[in-house]
Amino acid sequence: MTQPSISASYMLKNKNINFKNRIVKSAMSEGMASENYLPTDNIIRLYKTWADGGVGLLITGNVMIDRKALGEPRNIVLEDSEDIDLFKKWAEAGTSNNTHFFMQINHPGKQVLKGVVKEAVAPSAIPFKSDLQRFFPKCRALSCEEIEEIIQRFASTAELAKVAGFTGVQIHAAHGYLISQFLSPRHNQRKDKWGGTIENRFRFLSEIYQAIRARVGDDFPIGVKINSSDFMKAGFTEEDSQFVISELEKLGIDLIEISGGTYEKAALFGKDAKPSTVKREAYFLEYTEKLKEITNVPLILTGGFRTSSAMNEALTSGATDFIGLARPMALYPDYPNKLLENKVSNLSIKPVKTGLPFIDNKGLIELTWYNQQLVRIGKGKSTKPTFSPILALLLTIFKNGKEIFEKRRV
Questions:
Q1: CA dist 346 → 179, 308, 342, 349 (Å)
Q2: Which residues form a coiled coil (predicted)?
């Protein structure tokens, strides 16, 4: 039997959908929408460049289901068919070169920064810890009627994504956004059917999946991005995550991407990773190894991969079925082609640091620096991997003012 590798194709069970290789461009927030929250020529060019770069599956950054609920400035929103032709152009670009293109759909919940939206909503009216809360407006708890409306908004956006020509959708249930908030006992302290036990906290995600499936049919792939854990006291645990994934498998989920942490505890950036984890490159590899003992759902493992040897080892071991790449794709959009052609075996990406602790400790300069690289690709320019973080900081302040560092997200 041939050992799986990044170059191997993968047939998605029961969907008759074939991915040409095992490399996935994981979601990164682009912040490149028009003033009306629509795809622009630059973002269409960005995804065409990635598709030409050889990736098997592209996943968009956050596409919001409601223009009243933005995670950050310049999010794309898909809530009606009025401008569907722009989304068709985006889908056409992203599906070129025999590439699959999934739309990541999301609602931020209370992770909405001050000045971006009028109000914040959440499962329960529980603030973030004090040092983080100052960036966010006070939240209120959703009513049951509002919860049902949001479920249908997810379904509507997924249906529109299918109409536009995207080949699947990914429900964002990680990183502290609304679904993640419902899953977490730290943030969801409701006493009704939406809170309490993990079975009740899972209900929101379960009904979103089922509502989407009812709209898009059995042949359209639906994926979920979920935390292995949020790494916080009294939060969403690995046991909770395993329960949710097992239940999603019963419902018929097609693909699961594993991540971890929230903006309160940024494990998704590899912070505080153990030396053994760093050596194996993948931040959440140990978790997926355990997960594979209880589920047969195809998995995407994202976070930390840099070398073809580590990617192939993770695939050969059976710990994952796909390799997710994010920041390498922001610097080298043709990195998959180079990996597949054995033109590169190792990629070194240095941390983006200005040397100013009050900037670097927040991690926000990295988000801004990488966003500037995406903007360059979208303009048809080459990236600048050696671009000075200090210059990036000055450019950002000159263009947007210092407030931009209170309005950037992944």
A1: 36, 7, 10, 10
A2: none
